[in-house]
Write a structure and sequence with these properties.
single chain; alpha+beta; Alpha-Beta Plaits; four-stranded antiparallel beta sheet; 2 helices
Length: about 80
């Protein structure tokens, strides 16, 4: 199975969506290398960065699920590192 390393940048503008987001991320936990969350209280948003190593279709599926959440935006940057496992 080929995997790629990618980074997802997530901005959460609606706090009530955080629980759904955390549930989705939990479902993909086996692929997540690390996660950093920064609450930006002055702007009432949360900024989350996810490092992931997974098959490209898994990364795309995760990004799609996150992007469909109300008040959440996500962008994914892929590295050129592809590994056969």
């Amino acid at each position: 199975m080929e995997t790629r390393v990618a980074v997802m940048s997530i901005i959460v503008e609606k706090g009530e969506t955080v629980e759904k987001l955390n549930s989705i991320l939990h479902d993909y936990g086996e692929f997540i290398i690390g996660r950093m969350g920064i609450p930006y209280r002055e702007k009432n948003i949360n900024i989350i960065s996810i490092a992931i190593d997974a098959p490209q279709d898994t990364i795309a599926a995760l990004s799609g699920k996150i992007g469909r959440l109300d008040g959440v935006s996500v962008k994914t940057a892929y590295s050129g590192v592809i590994t056969n496992e």
